[in-house]
Amino acid sequence: MTADLPGLDTHFLQSLTVLFVEDDPDIHTLLDRVITRHVGTLITALDGEEGWQKFQARRPDIIVTDILMPTLDGLAMTKRVRDQDAEIPIIVTTAHSDEEYFLRSIDLGIDRYVLKPTTPQTLLKALNHCARALWRRREQESANRYVRFILDIQPNLLLVTNNERLEYINRAFLKLLGFETLEEFLASGTHLGTRLLTREGQPLDPDRQPGEWIHTLLTLSQEHGIVHLRGADPQQTTSTPFAVTFNALPELNRYIFSFSDVTHLEKEKQQLEVQAFTDALTGTCNRARLQEVLNTELRRAQRYELPLSIVLCDIDHFKQVNDRFGHQIGDDVLRQVSSLMAANIRAEDILARWGGEEFMIVSPQNDVENMRQLAEKLRVILETTRFPVVQNITCSFGVAQRQDDDTIRTLTERADKALYAAKSAGRNRVEIGTRD
Fold first, then answer.
1. Domain range 278-432, CATH architecture
2. pLDDT tens for residues 115-134?
3. Of 111-120, 145-154, 384-393, which one has max mean pLDDT?
């Protein structure tokens, strides 16, 4: 199809089907001959009712209709047509210039309004105008189909938006959401802002505000962020991580977002984090991870004026265990001690290996008296447990609670001094650290 519109008109018209509705026999005969020479197929009707029936049966490309006709007038027929097809070009011909007809025609979306007596040249000019508009629309639809085809064959999840709403989702994205077509997805009322989650598991738009999730997604894309997506079941707790990027088409006010599955990268990252922050022998947090935990919890406690307590635990005479039974038995003792302690603290408490035979418990929103009771409970459990080979061990504990001006160093030093006091007082006991 040539892109030269002036040269296109005759050629394109000859590919179209036109419905011509006119009750005046003389006008009908004259314009029938004119239209027939320029269009591919001409369908004729003598009144609006017949025109409506033939529209339903043949689905023409353009309609030319008179207004005043028996049985069903042209505007009443046009309303029926518009209810089924809002896009078809419609040309109205009439001998009346009444303002009411013009207003009704405008309301119905009439494309051209031609006054009678209608000359062939005037009617052909109107037909050419409608043919141009129809050609442009079909060219745009063809381009859109090609774009959708390109989007649909991509393995990545893709979606197209403007600033306020979703315009297209490709097939891969629809499949993951549990839909076959875009129409099915739109009809379902599904809101992507509740399916797309931040790394922390929060919906991008929990309140379903128009366009809010798009702006959040743009921000995450600019930061090379990770977005999680819940699939076909909106109630499922698991989600898939995706790296999201976007390309902007400012002249069209459009954004194309691309989602790349990074599940394997996230798993590898988690494994590396576990390796980097877990004590290899006991499976508890290591010293590096403990520093992060202490920093986070201390800042939170100071910000919201919450209690925060820690316990330092040291296995008494552990060097004798290693010297007498060997380091492998000593490692077994460390593993069993950490396991017993982990099984007897709160879910929100953090157990870490402080170093050697020492462990630390960080307990958010817990005061020193509660921590003293916990330490005493652990002391009794460890004292009364029978360990393989070694049989009996005891542990000493130092407890400290956060003070307003504490740093990590001052808090841990106070617990360490309390632990030293417990050892100096005979071991196998709990002491509370106080300010000097």
1. 2-Layer Sandwich (3.30)
2. 888 888 889 899 999 999 89
3. 384-393
Considering the entire predicted model, what is its pTM?
0.48
The pLDDT of 92-102, averaged and rounded, is 70
- Beta-carbon contacts of 301 under 8 Å, excluding residues fewer than 6 positions away, are 307, 308, 364, 365, 402
Extents of the domains making up the chain: 5-141, 154-265, 278-432
Average pLDDT over residues 53-66: 94
| Topology alike, domains 5-141 and 154-265 | no
Position 415 confidence tier, pLDDT thresholds 50, 70, 90: very high
In the 3-class helix/strand/coil scheme, how is the chain assigned residue by residue? CCCCHHHHHHHHHCCCEEEEECCCHHHHHHHHHHHHHHCCEEEEECCHHHHHHHHHHHCCCEEEEECCCCCCCHHHHHHHHHHHCCCCCEEEEECCCCHHHHHHHHHCCCCEEEECCCCHHHHHHHHHHHHHHHHHHHHHHHHHHHHHHHHHCCCCEEEEECCCCEEEECHHHHHHHCCCCHHHHHHHCCCHHHHEECCCCCECCCCCCCCHHHHHHHHHHHCCCEEEECCCCCCCCCCEEEEEEEEEECCCCEEEEEEEECHHHHHHHHHHHHHHHECCCCCCECHHHHHHHHHHHHHHHHHHCCCEEEEEEEECCHHHHHHHHCHHHHHHHHHHHHHHHHCCCCCCCEEEEEECCEEEEEEECCCHHHHHHHHHHHHHHHHHCCECCCECCCEEEEEEECCCCCCHHHHHHHHHHHHHHHHHCCCCCEEECCCC
Amino acid 233: pLDDT: 64
Topology annotation, domain 154-265: Beta-Lactamase (3.30.450)
CATH of 5-141, one of 3.40.50.2300, 3.40.50.1220, 3.40.1280.10, 1.10.10.10: 3.40.50.2300
